[in-house]
Specification:
Catalyzes the conversion of GDP-D-mannose to GDP-4-dehydro-6-deoxy-D-mannose. Pfam families: GDP_Man_Dehyd. The chain contains ten helices and 13 strands. With about 325 residues, the protein is of the alpha/beta class. The chain folds into two domains: about 200 residues, NAD(P)-binding Rossmann-like Domain (Rossmann fold, 3-Layer(aba) Sandwich); about 90 residues, UDP-galactose 4-epimerase, domain 1 (Alpha-Beta Complex), CATH 3.90.25.10. Strand 4, helix 4 and strand 5 form a beta-alpha-beta unit. Helix 1 packs across helix 7, helix 4 runs parallel beside helix 5 and helix 8 crosses helix 10. It is globular, with a radius of gyration of 19 Å.
Length: about 325
């Protein structure tokens, strides 16, 4: 039986990836930080909480990583752990760097020392591109120009992964994933803030929805589709980096319109209010991925259309509130 270690198992991507690996008969280890009461809601949502073996560790504590890699010696390591909320990275730049950048160096070093044949996946991000495109899209050859401490920390981790691959011959690769969402997306992210806010309005728990800029364009896909690309990257003969995206862009405003439409609420403009607190010091106006390489080499394609993604998220949040009121 193959075994895999997933960091960030309690986040959004971790549960979807764990579910996929369990279906392929993997033994899955999930790394969690020492909490007094860990939150397993996302794993509960997918019905896999009791099918994973949990190990305590922290990317900022290299000793814990050395112990985990030495004891588990995983065949595959998926590093999904991060301080991943872009908006918070300005106020928590040092913490973001320690987790997202130095933490990846700690993990790669532990693998090199105790399990050098492990295949390593690093969760890179489209935020690394920032303003780095003149073509209207971003692919593996687009230069990086990050616009946030989050994006900067991820660029460090990305190049450190490349460096370990080139310096030590390790199977280390990065998936440069564009925005991917789901019903278990963190509530602080704009897509989930929208779906949750619309659900609250639908069931009578709120009268308005506070948002920042509605004009930025993003390439949004479904997290459940994107974890398949992660898995496929580690099944290749040689490690390479891949952009994973739908190739379509939609504004935040389009997401809002579809969300209210899904809930059967007309005149969305009367519910949405602008709040300057949610506007970032430096915004990335347009991200659009070109995943031709992944489609050709991995045989991967996104399966979930944008309207279906929005519908899935809004309906899930409405159901959550309706179930609470039963």
């Amino acid at each position: 039986m193959a075994n895999a270690l997933i960091t960030g198992i309690l986040g959004q991507d971790g549960p979807y990836l764990a579910k996929l690996l369990l279906e392929k008969n993997y033994k899955v280890y999930g790394m969690i930080r020492r909490y007094s009461t860990p939150q397993f809601d996302n794993l509960d949502y997918l019905g896999i909480t009791n099918k994973i073996e949990y190990i305590e560790g922290d990317l900022t504590d290299d000793a814990s990583l050395l112990n985990i890699i030495k004891n588990v010696r995983p065949q595959e390591v998926y590093n999904l752990a991060a301080q991943s909320f872009v908006g918070s990275s300005w106020e928590q730049a040092k913490l973001t760097t320690e987790i997202n950048a130095v933490g990846v160096l700690n993990l790669l070093s532990a693998i090199k020392l105790f399990s050098p044949t492990s295949k390593f996946y690093q969760a890179s991000t489209s935020e690394m591109f920032g303003l780095g495109n003149d073509n209207g899209y971003q692919d593996e050859n687009t230069p990086f120009h990050p616009r946030s401490p989050y994006g900067i920390s991820k660029v460090y981790a990305h190049w450190m992964t490349v460096n370990f691959r080139e310096s030590y011959g390790m199977f280390a690769c990065s998936g440069i994933l564009f925005n991917h969402e789901s019903p278990i997306r963190g509530i602080q992210f704009v897509t989930r803030k929208i779906s949750d806010g619309v659900a609250k309005i639908k069931v009578g728990l709120a009268k308005d929805l506070l948002l920042g800029d509605l004009e930025p364009k993003r390439d949004w896909g479904f997290a459940g589709d994107y974890v398949e690309a992660m898995y496929k990257m580690l099944q290749q003969e040689k490690p390479e980096d891949f952009v994973v995206a739908t190739g379509e862009t939609h504004t935040v405003k389009e997401f809002v319109e579809l969300a209210f439409k899904t809930a059967g609420i007309d005149n969305w403009q009367s519910y949405v209010k602008s709040d300057p607190r949610f506007k970032r010091p430096a915004e990335v106006p347009h991200l659009q991925g070109k995943s031709d390489k992944a489609q050709k080499a991995l045989g991967w394609k996104p399966k979930t259309p944008f309207p279906d993604l929005v519908k899935m998220m809004v309906e899930a949040d409405i159901k959550r509130y309706q179930d609470k009121n039963k």
